[in-house]
Amino acid sequence: MLKLIIREFIDQAVLFIIAAMISSAAAIALFYNKSSNAAGSPFGLLLFAPPVCLLFGMAQTNLDVKRRALAFLITLPTSRLQIYMAKIISGCIWILILTVPSSLALCQLSWSAMFPARLSFLLTNTLVTLYLIMLIWHGFGMLIGFFHERVWLIFLCFVAIVFYGVFIFICISGASIGFLALICIALYSVGLIHFKQMHT
Amino acid sequence: MENVIEIQNLTKFFGGKCVLENINLKIPQGTAYGLLGRNGAGKTTLIRMLMGLDSPTAGTISILDKDPFELAPADRARIGYVAEGHHLIQDYKVSRLIDLAKSLSPNWDNQQFARLLTVFKFPTTSKVRQLSTGQRAQLNLSLALAIQPDILILDDPTLGLDTVARRQFLELAVDLISSQNRTVLFSSHILSDVERIADRVGILIGRHLAVDCDLEYLKQSIRKFRLRFDTGIPEKIHLTEIVRQSRTNGELILTIANWDTIKEQILDLYKPADVTEVPMSLEDIFIECSIQQEVSC
Q1: Residue B15 contacts A, CB cutoff 8 Å
Q2: Distance between CA B37 and CA B47 in Å, rounded?
Q3: Which terminus, N or C, of chain B has the lesser number of Cβ atoms within 10 Å?
Q4: Which residues of A touch B51 (CB under 8 A)?
Q5: Is the CB of residue B91 less than 8 Å from the CB of residue A67?
Q6: Backbone torsions φ then ψ of A149, nearest 5 degrees
């Protein structure tokens, strides 16, 4: 399994480097911008994160489908579950790389007097929600990426755009963490079921 | 002997088209099974379903007593597979691909792989896509053999190999089969290869597994005769299991399956002036069987 995770890192090395660079830049900007405007950054991430995570998830699976890597991997002493789990784990790590530095910078800000006390209290909740949102879109991206027919890809991307609008509305209206976790598990499960039955 | 591969009532549709119908096959451990069939007969589809790369429309498949889709990594480690067209990860370096296969294979045999490298001599520093078709075939074969499989499944493995590499591969395969009681299932268009390796053959014709028997038995049981009649060729020959018959220049050419003394006596009743047996190779048998009319699905 570890070898499969390492394979994902190497295959997606460019995306991991980009995530680290964006994340570092955001953290530095937050660290030096000690104003109350910084409290709004998680909401900016809410808009920015879904398409980015969707694209990362799609890249992970669609690249392997296109170059028939899955057909090769499946014939090696591994299982579809392990291949899929390696993708989820590397996806989680990618999301952490993307968000942890800026989250730490935000936490550091929240301890300062500049940050509104009410938002400080909500910060943990907001960050957990944000991680779950990113995982949901990563799972959705992985599911879409398994479809190699262009018609399906276009259709599912269209669904994603519609879902994006609805999703942002639900999140702003105040979705519970439990509800988001449920969507996340459901999407990863659907992806696994599809991958277990798909022809490679 | 234990069957390591069992297929029961297998049917496969692609869209609305029936590709395989009601296939039943059992392959005991230690058998070298040659799967034959014309292009589009369903050989690759059958092998892909055995590997869990495609699912059957109906029927069951078991390999090492398990559904191919449910094989655990430990079971996979016992199966070596070479796909038709050699689907390797094209943008990987050969060395990276080898490392990946090696790291995932608990039974990886370094000595065997080194031996194969000295035989095949493919470059390990190039990217897979830079290899020729023959070199990709050699790499794929080496990866499949290095894991020391109990079952080796080869889908047209010598496709793209030159004569020397093909002979080297065949010698390795014969060595592997005879020394370690491994089961080999392979399809090939080169029937002399099949004749050299297989001890049992199956022929897919018109979506069905029309022949499934020992190679020697097949050679003994299918006979071809050239019959000359002084009084003209009979309108109809009342014999069962005629694989093929043709009439040319006053001669009747008959290919008959399951040849025995009863059929010989029946044929004598037609009083042919001259009967000549035509020797048949596996290739001749395959062609005779393949020209049969297809049965509708």
Answers
A1: no
A2: 13
A3: N
A4: 74-75
A5: yes
A6: -75, 135
User: How far A172 CA sits from the closest chain B CA (Å)?
Assistant: 42
Question: For every one of its 297 residues, what pLDDT tens digit does chain B have, with 9 covering 90 and above?
Answer: 688 899 999 999 887 888 888 889 999 888 889 898 888 888 899 999 998 888 889 999 999 988 888 888 888 888 988 887 777 888 889 999 999 989 888 888 888 888 888 877 788 888 888 888 778 888 888 888 888 888 889 888 877 777 877 777 777 767 766 667 788 898 887 888 888 888 898 888 888 888 888 888 888 888 888 888 887 788 788 877 788 888 877 788 888 888 888 888 888 888 888 888 888 888 888 887 777 644 333
3-state secondary structure of B141: helix
Q: What residue has token string 């301890």?
A: A111
Inter-chain CB proximity A69 and B76 less than 8 Å: no
ipTM, two decimals: 0.76
Closest CA to B254 of B296, B222, B209, B294: B222
Q: Which residues of A touch B (CB under 8 A)?
A: 3-4, 7, 67-69, 71-72, 74-79, 82, 196-197, 199-200
End-to-end CA distance of chain B: 33
From the list B53, B88, B105, which residue is nearest A200 (CB)?
Answer: B53
Test the A interface: residue of B49, B53, B155 with most A CBs within 10 Å:
B53
